[in-house]
Automatic annotation (TrEMBL):
Signal peptide (UniProt feature, chain positions): 1-24
Phylogenetic placement of the source organism: Bacteria, Bacillati, Actinomycetota, Actinomycetes, Propionibacteriales
Comp. bias regions, Low complexity: 36-47
Region (Disordered): 26-61
Keywords: Signal
Regions of compositional bias (Pro residues) in chain numbering: 48-59
Protein name: Lipoprotein
Transmembrane segments: none
Length: 216
């Protein structure tokens, strides 16, 4: 015969078992955070900086539209004394590039395009240009024109001769006559001059060859 204590114990055990089963069957509808896949971290792309370009420096002076004639550029003439060139207002005392220069063009104090040489008394012996702008009265030649254009304007021009710094010089006929004349500096050595070789400088003198490579 089973006693009341045993029956109560059995009933209690049954209730506990039923409760455990019920709890096991209850689950959360929310997903387990541990099972979720983490979102990837977005990648930020920094655009590469655009390359910068530097502009070449502009000349310090605007080159006047001068006419180049034998022994003259504009109103400046080879042979002018100090009193004569001072009256034109074109020049001022002081060197443009070399210490030995006595005067310079007021329009180009740094000598980037216009140059002038004198003797020790400041009498002008040579005028020359080294930038486009001024043109010759014969042939409309300027710095940057080609040797082919030069030869067409002056068919009897002398053959190119080396004139230092990988350049060559040529002259129209007449320099041996003691007459004012042009001198043209070409941008290549004499043996490399072609029709496309550019004119690098144009000089005018008073009957002697242009001094393109003078000592400072």
């Amino acid at each position: 015969m089973t006693g009341p204590l045993i029956r109560r114990t059995s009933a209690l055990a049954l209730l506990l078992a039923l409760g455990a089963t019920a709890l096991a069957g209850c689950g959360s509808d929310e997903p387990d955070e541990s099972d979720s896949t983490a979102s990837p971290t977005p990648t930020v792309t920094t655009p590469a900086p655009e390359p910068t370009t530097s502009e070449p420096p502009a000349p310090t002076a605007d080159v006047p539209a001068l006419v180049i004639r034998p022994a003259a550029i504009g109103d400046a003439q080879v042979g002018m004394t100090r009193a004569e060139w001072e009256a034109t207002g074109l020049f001022a005392d002081g060197a443009a590039i070399c210490a030995g220069e006595l005067i310079h063009w007021k329009d180009d104090p740094d000598g980037t395009a216009l140059r002038v040489l004198t003797d020790e008394d400041a009498t002008i012996t040579q005028l020359w240009v080294t930038a486009p702008g001024p043109v010759t009265d014969h042939g409309d030649l300027q710095v940057g024109s080609t040797y082919a254009e030069l030869a067409a304007a002056f068919p009897d021009i002398t053959a190119p001769v080396d004139d230092g710094y990988d350049q060559a010089s040529v002259y129209p006929p007449g320099e041996e006559d003691g007459l004012p004349y042009f001198g043209f500096l070409l941008g290549a050595p004499a043996d490399e001059v072609t029709g496309d070789t550019p004119i690098a400088a144009i000089a005018v003198t008073g009957g002697t060859p242009a001094d393109f490579q003078y000592d400072c």
